[in-house]
Amino acid sequence: MIKASLRGLLQRKLRLALAVIAIVLSVGFLSGSMVLSDTLNARFAGLFATINENVAVQVQPTKESDNGERVLLSAAELEKMSKVDGVDKASGEVSGQGVVPFQSDTGDEVTTQTTIAAGTDGRDPLGLVELREGDWPHSADEVAISANTAKLAKVKRGEQLKIFVPQLGEPKNYRVSGIVGYSGGRDSLAGEALILFELGHAQEMFYGKRDVFANASFSAKDGVTHEELKKRIEAQLPAGFKALTGEEVTEQQSNVLGDQFSVFQIILTAFAIIAAFVGIFLIYNTFNIIVAQRSRELALLRAMGAGWGQVVGSVMLEALIVGGVGATLGLALGAGVGALVERMLTSGIGLGIESAGIVLSPWAVLWSYAMGILVTVIAAFVPAIKASSVPPVAAMREVVRPDKSLVGLTITGSCFLVPGLALVALPLLASVPQSTLILAAGLGLVFIGVMLLSPMLAKPVVRLLGYLVGWGQAGKLGVRNSLRNPRRTAVTAISLMIGVTLISAAATVTESFKTSLENDIGRYDVAIIVLGPNTAPPDGRTGYNPTAMDKVSQLPGVTDVASWHITLNGALGGQPYPGLAATDVAVAQRMWKMETIEGRLGKLSPNEFVIDDNLAKDRGWKVGEKVKVRIEAVERDYTLVGIYKATPTVSGPLLAEAAVDDFAGGLAYQGFVSVSQGTDVAATVASVDKIMSDYPGVTVGDMSAFLKQFNQIFDFLLRAITFLLGVALIIALLGILNTLLLSIVERTRELGLVRAIGLSRGAVVRMVGVESILIAVFGCLLGLVVGVGSGAALSQALIEADFMTTIVLPWTNLIAYVVTAILFGVFAAVVPALRAAFLNVLDAIAYE
Amino acid sequence: MTMTPAARAVEVWKVYGTGEAQVQALRGVSAEFERGKYTAIMGPSGSGKSTLMHCLAGLDTVNAGTVYIGETQVTGLGDAGLTKLRREKVGFIFQQFNLLPTLTAAENITLPLAIAGRQPDKAWYDTVILTVGLGDRLHHRPSELSGGQQQRVACARALVSRPEVIFADEPTGNLDSRSGTDVLNFLRDSVRQHGQTIVMVTHDPNAASYADRVVFLADGEIVDEILSPTADSVLDRMKKLDRNA
Ligand SMILES: Nc1ncnc2c1ncn2[C@@H]1O[C@H](COP(=O)(O)OP(=O)(O)OP(=O)(O)O)[C@@H](O)[C@H]1O
Ligand SMILES: [Mg+2]
């Protein structure tokens, strides 16, 4: 029995190859994305292992900023810990964020991944950084910089380097006292810039007082283990601090850096899951058809006395082998591609970290095999059971399997679809809590419902489409062929539907958003926008000095200016609220045409604030309400004096300008300028840009420029989504190809017959092409309907939340998707159609 | 003016395989099949009956010799020419699997016309349908028809485009005697009443007796023929052939 099934395996090379390719592709993307992220992580871990080479123990604040307040280590506490028995050397760390050096020739900011800014007292006890030329900084006007920084900023020792420090608010010139490097002759660890300030100066700038440190690192004397030293130091720990071994620090740091990439990884994993999901359909369909086609052979085995279990067992064995081979190849493919992409990525962003080699985690292996083997075995199981339960005689006769009833599927599908639609409608019609969750659940149910209903939908839809593409007798035969097994057509189409649904939903939301923004932004009296850098989250330490706006207000034609201070480190009524803004509400009201709903807007006194109507409804606050507002570490009682109508552009809490005193820094993050009629906006933008040139990362543009920039971001997002879903679409393409090829094998004798009675080669090609196009377009239409519907529902929800104003269907995109689907159909049909057309007529008729 | 025969083979050789495994399926066969006549081809299994028919119909290529259907030289035609030939000049009936499962009986019958993009001649179509005698089963799928009914549909399909010649390879091979008789009557009527030319391969002396002429094949050569055969005369001749072999 086993011999028979193995021999059978080798005799059906084509079908076997198709099944394996299906598995390889699906498994490949999944394992590829896992290998990519594992390999990236290993590379980061390698980087931090180098940094912490000499660190036995590090003492850090327990929480970076518990209620915003920064816990610092005093010089005395550091001194006390450095006396602990077993400590060899101790080093206190002083560092600041948002420091940016400028290039000496162009005056532009240096662009790197990060700039490390630290304080030094002329020694680096732990020996990571070494002085190469010149001297350590000895005054508040000197800095030592890494060789890489010198190269990036194009400065030499003794020259002036312009540096922006957020706490100072303005750029300042420093003399480069020396050039440093890392052990092993490296100019940088990972392409970053490094600026070392004199210790006391750095402490004053970053912490506002001398003799304090953010954390401290210790090396161990010979014979003292890191764990041991950690225990000893823990006994001397000041309150609010914890001790970690060097190894733990490495892990922590690579996790932090990993987090920066984690968005990327999460996105990648999400798309890998989508691809895997599509792959499941592909594998299932392929194996399903293969086993169904063998039902005669299986019946013959049964007739010769093979038991039910033997038949099912032999099919399962076959599935196991095919799944195992496919998963292994897919894993290998994924590892290769993942490693390649990792190399391209890291060299693409100039991350000069040594590779840690390809990392193949047990999880990647496990998931690959789970996906490859499990899906294949399950896919084979259902048809194997069916095949073995057919009476041998019936299966051996030339019979057309009658259409299985779709009633069960249709009922089940409706059981998903109807409640799903209700859940989608609920949050759109009435205000309910957890509306996003309900909407998402509803959309999920609708999607499953449509999937289950698709075999039932296939007949009418494909028949209708058939009128459009089913020209001539060849076309008609193609239409009939695609209708003869609605389940098969539907399952094949679903793999395409999944990708199209997601793409068209994204396209609908972005198009609606773009149009809403465009419509909305024209209403306001704002001509020029100043935006802070997007390199760090705003908290008052990034952006521009608001005094710069005074200069802007002097420009000819400028009628109004406004500076908005924004912080993500705040809380509103006890809940963290990223996005508190402090500004002159009177000006904001003029510029943004803010509509008062309750109370008053206008100039606010200290400790007063206003919010939009959605937020007021959400929190249940009325005018006059006392609300606790925390900014950084300071919590104060604020009085709600007014409620305004939210718009897509302006929403959220606006605090009195006085609140800026509590921000981490005095920099404004956004600025707005209005001009009188007839003012040369372009010239004004240029002047404002000049005034803002001292502030790193600050961009200036007129409304249309920003709109364009926004649109570009949306377009880029949509393109990125489309690209990532491309893998899923290619798997879907392969699915169509598989189904067609297998169907053609199944219909070999029919093909011989129609050729014998006069169907030309060209007509056979057309016949297969029509079937392919019908499947592709059917899948695309299902996806479009569900996708556009979901997109519209999401947009409607966003409209309710005043993020958007209109729903716009992305017609050009939708048409492009249909055209692409047709091309997909044509493309998928090429190989099967040629195969069908060049079948030898006699062989085909005699085919068993 | 002498009428050209509906189909003609001149010194046709067909060889399968090479070297040791070589089989000479046809060894210089020459034969003519007159218009409006019903010819049966008989012979032991493996004698080359099917091969001859396939070569005559342009389904297979020959190694040497020439084949004509009417005025058209079949040997040397490309795929386009062969397709045109099949559409206009040749009809087929196979032993089994003659119908497309997705089409109804009626649709199967008109399929050759639809493929060629021709309208059925209404009167002729009605005649053919009437002769098939399927009645209301005409709009059923092949899977809902009996084997005999299916084979009659296949005959009607071959007839409907009025080809110069219909080739039938053991059309009754899969049928019981009653259904077989139906099909044979159908074929003979189409020759007698409508002047159709039919070439039929069969093993059954009784089936051969419906023909106007029987050609005997052995080892790839035509060895004998009988005009106006009866079942007995055919059986007699076959026994003789077997003894010689
Ligand atoms: N494709 C092929 N390859 C090799 N040999 C073949 C092929 N087709 C037929 N033959 C050989 O050619 C010879 C004639 O075969 P053919 O099918 O014409 O016989 P037949 O008279 O129709 O027999 P039957 O009555 O059994 O149908 C046989 O010896 C057969 O083995
Ligand atoms: Mg034969």
Automatic annotation (TrEMBL), chain A:
Protein family per UniProt: Belongs to the ABC-4 integral membrane protein family.
Subcellular location: Cell membrane
InterPro entries (alphabetical): ABC3_permease_C, MacB_PCD, Macrolide_Exporter_MacB
Membrane topology: Multi-pass membrane protein
Source taxonomy: Bacteria, Bacillati, Actinomycetota, Actinomycetes, Micromonosporales
Transmembrane feature ranges: 263-287, 308-341, 361-385, 406-430, 436-458, 490-509, 716-742, 763-794, 814-834
Keyword Cell division (UniProt): no
Protein name, as recorded: Membrane protein
GO molecular function: transmembrane transporter activity
Primary localization: membrane
GO CC terms, sorted: plasma membrane
TrEMBL record, chain B:
One MF term in the entry's GO annotations: ATP binding
Domain annotation ABC transporter: ranges: 7-244
One GO cellular component term noted in the UniProt record for this chain: membrane protein complex
Keyword line: ATP-binding, Nucleotide-binding, Transport
Entry superkingdom: Bacteria
Pfam families on file: ABC_tran (PF00005)
InterPro entries cross-referenced by the UniProt entry: AAA+_ATPase, ABC_transporter-like_ATP-bd, MacB-like_ATP-bd, P-loop_NTPase
The organism of origin for this protein: Rhizocola hellebori
PROSITE patterns reported for this sequence: ABC_TRANSPORTER_2 (PS50893)
PANTHER family: ABC TRANSPORTER ATP-BINDING PROTEIN MG467-RELATED, LIPOPROTEIN-RELEASING SYSTEM ATP-BINDING PROTEIN LOLD
SMART domains per UniProt: AAA
Family membership: Belongs to the ABC transporter superfamily.
The protein's name: ABC transporter ATP-binding protein
